[in-house]
Amino acid sequence: MNPDTAASPDHRPRVLVTRRIHEAGLQQLGEHTRLEVWDGAMPPSREELLRRAEGCEGLVTLLSDRVDGELLDRAGPQLKVVCNYAVGFNNIDVQAAAQRDVAVGNTPDVLTDATADLAVALLLAAARRLPEAIDQVRQGRWKTWEPLGLLGVDLVGKTLGIVGMGRIGLATAQRLHAGWGMRVLYTARDPKPDADSRLDARHVDLPTLLASSDFVSIHCPLTEQTAGLIDAEALARMPQHAVLVNTARGEVVDQDALAAALEKRQIFAAGLDVTTPEPLPPEHPLVGLDNCVIAPHIGSASQDSRRRMSEIAAQNVLAGLRGEPLPHPVSTGEAG
Ligand code: DGY
Fold it and tell me: Are residues 289 and 307 in the same domain?
């Protein structure tokens, strides 16, 4: 073989991205790594994921990928960094990664506004029964202006309860306090002086929040402590006119209890961007309820957020490959 024409081996680190994400971050990664992108419309199967991770030094994963000891071991000892293309990272066994010296990052901040916007949108849609109203028009059931039809609940001057006052909780509270004059209550591990001074918010315990709020919006991370936090007992504390919104993780809410509460009109409505499982099967009781608005986990699905998430994922992975601290390491503090 002519040595001048022989291709030189590519020694750049191998990186796997488990779905096609925004091009901005892929371009940055492609300049410095041997990049492989899983191009399927659906996530890779477990087997496929394990196989493709083998020999990688960096991984960009999605919340649908379970990153545990098995995956980290299959990747191999050269694996340096995993970045979740999300702010939440409950799909990653952070301890297993630390034990193997693998840095773990996420993509916070850049999706705060998009997710808070969606929380407000779901709150409004559930409170004002928008999907029911839209269906009525689409299905030709709009007969006349009805004095007592499709009555919703008002927002102005009501009380908002934020479960988990992290960045997204705060951004949601800011919107509803500034726009609708809502009084803000919140739960968090510690009081948030910023929220208290800027929004005149009050740090309370969960039972107080549930009993005193007209709207409850969930923003806590999914942990052992928060799984099933909003159960039948919690729902029973909420007033009958209350609206529950969840843009955090489906597992925080006991869905059977929620379906029962909505069916009995024990609370007014719910707006969910997250469910267990995802996707929620169409035959699930929550799907058929007219007072339950469900979106397919689109909190961060805005063009700017997804572009910036991909850039941050690339920055995290490239820093990890260089052995530098990640610009956005995961933090086990408040969600969002
Ligand atoms: C997150 O970032 O955790 C959202 O749930 C998906 O963007």
Answer: no
241 is catalytic: no
Please list every protein residue whose CB sits less than 6 Å from any atom of ligand 1.
63, 86-88, 111, 299-300
Does 144 reside within a domain?
yes
pLDDT in tens, 232-283: 999 999 999 999 999 999 999 999 999 999 999 999 999 999 999 999 999 9
Specify if 5 maps to a domain: no
Atom 4 of ligand 1 has which residue's CA nearest to it?
86
The dihedrals phi and psi of 257, each to the nearest 5 degrees, come to -65, -40
Considering the domain boundaries, does residue 121 fall inside one? yes
The model's pLDDT over 133-146, given as tens digits with 9 standing for 90+, comes to 999 999 999 999 99
Q: Which domain holds residue 160?
A: 112-294
Residue 247: CATH number of its domain? 3.40.50.720
